[in-house]
Amino acid sequence: xxxxGRFWWWPVVLVLVHFGNKESDxxxxxxxxxxxxxxxxxxxxxxxxxxxxEESGGGRYFNASYFLPFKDLQYLDLSSNLISxxxxxxxxxxxxxxxxxxxxxLDYNNFNNSVLSSxxxxxxxxxxxxxxxxxxxxxPFQGFESLSLxxxxxxxxMDANDFNNxxxxxxxxxxxxxxxxxxxxxxNGSIHIQEFKAFSNLEDLYLNGNEINDFxxxxxxxxxxxxxLLDLSQTKISARILxxxxxxxxxxxxxxxxxxxEGPFTNKAxxxxxxxxxxxxxx
Length: 283
Ligand SMILES: *[C@@H]1O[C@H](CO)[C@@H](O)[C@H](O)[C@H]1NC(C)=O
Ligand SMILES: *[C@@H]1O[C@H](CO)[C@@H](O)[C@H](O)[C@H]1NC(C)=O
Ligand SMILES: *[C@@H]1O[C@H](CO)[C@@H](O)[C@H](O)[C@H]1NC(C)=O
Ligand SMILES: *[C@@H]1O[C@H](CO)[C@@H](O)[C@H](O)[C@H]1NC(C)=O
Ligand SMILES: *[C@@H]1O[C@H](CO)[C@@H](O)[C@H](O)[C@H]1NC(C)=O
Ligand SMILES: *[C@@H]1O[C@H](CO)[C@@H](O)[C@H](O)[C@H]1NC(C)=O
Fold this sequence. Notes:
Number of helices: 5
Keywords: Leucine-rich repeat, Repeat, Signal
InterPro entries: DNA_repair-toleration, Leu-rich_rpt, Leu-rich_rpt_typical-subtyp, LRR_dom_sf
Structural class: mainly beta
Radius of gyration: 21 Å
Shape: elongated
Pfam families: LRR_1 (PF00560), LRR_8 (PF13855)
Number of strands: 15
Largest sheet: 11 strands, mixed
Helix content: under 10%
CATH topology: Leucine-rich repeat, LRR (right-handed beta-alpha superhelix)
Number of domains: 1
Bound molecules: 2-acetamido-2-deoxy-beta-D-glucopyranose
Distance between the termini: 54 Å
CATH architecture: Alpha-Beta Horseshoe
C-alpha cells in the first residue's frame, strides 16, 4: 500500500476529469477517443503508464472513482500497469456506475482472485481481458462463479495465469460466452467435452499451451455445437483427437501446430469437412 498515489498517470486522469463538460478539449490526446457528436470520452487507453524501473515490489493500487466522471466510457484499457488491486472501498464495483462500459482490459497486471467478485458488478461488460495476472484456479472458486452475473459477457480471456482443469466447472455459469481463451495455463490430462456443457454459445476456444493430451466427446452430446475455432496447438494432444473432432458440426478453424501427432494418422477423412482452415504440423 506504500505506493498509493504514485502512478504518474493518476494526475493525467485527474486533469481529464477537471475538464468536466469540456471533455472535447482532450479528445485529440493520445489514448483518448471521444464521440464526435457529443464530444464526450468513450475510450481510454492507459496502458504502459508505469515504467518497469519505478517498480519497487509493493504492488500498485488504484482508485476506481477517478474514472466515474466519464459516464459515456465504453472501452477502458488499463493493461500493463503492474496494478495489484484497489485502495479500500474504491474497487471495480464503482464501475457499475459506468453503464456503457463494455470492454475492460486488465491484462499484464498483478490482479489475483480477490478482485473477481467486484468485477462481477459491472453488468454492461461484454469483453473482459484478464490474461497474464496472478489468478489461479484454486479455492476459493466463488470468485469465478460470480462472473456468471455478467450476463452480457461474450469474450473472456484468462490466458497465462495458473489455472488447472477445475477452472472449467467454476466458469460454468457464463452461457453468453462466445470466446474463451484459457491458453498457456496448467490444464492437463484428458478434458471431456462434458466440461463445456454450460457454454452453449461458445464459438472460439483457445486451449493452446496446456498439457492436454485428450479432448474427448461423446457421440450423442450436443455440446459445443456452435464451436467454429479450436486452438489445440502446443499441447500434448494425440492423433486420436481427430476422431473426436468429427462431432463438432460447426468447426471451421483448427490449430494443431507444435504437437507430436503420432499414431495412426491415415483417416484424414475424419477431419470435419467444413474445417476449411487446418493449421497444423501434420507429418
Ligand atoms: C455518439 O453519441 C450519439 C448521441 O448520443 C449516439 O447516437 C451515437 O451512437 C454515439 N456514437 C458512438 C460511436 O458511441
Ligand atoms: C478516490 O477518488 C475519489 C474521487 O476522486 C475521492 O473522492 C476519494 O476520496 C478517493 N479515495 C481515496 C481513499 O483516496
Ligand atoms: C491478492 O490481492 C490482494 C489485493 O491486492 C492482496 O491483499 C492479497 O494479499 C493478494 N493475495 C495473494 C495470495 O497474493
Ligand atoms: C491462489 O490464489 C489465492 C488467492 O489469491 C491464494 O490464496 C492461493 O495461495 C493461490 N494458490 C496457489 C496454488 O497459487
Ligand atoms: C486445481 O488446483 C487446486 C489447488 O491448487 C486443487 O485443489 C484442485 O484439486 C486442482 N484441480 C485439478 C483438477 O487438478
Ligand atoms: C494433472 O495435474 C495434477 C495436479 O497438478 C496431477 O495431480 C495429475 O497427475 C496431472 N494429470 C496428468 C494426466 O498429468
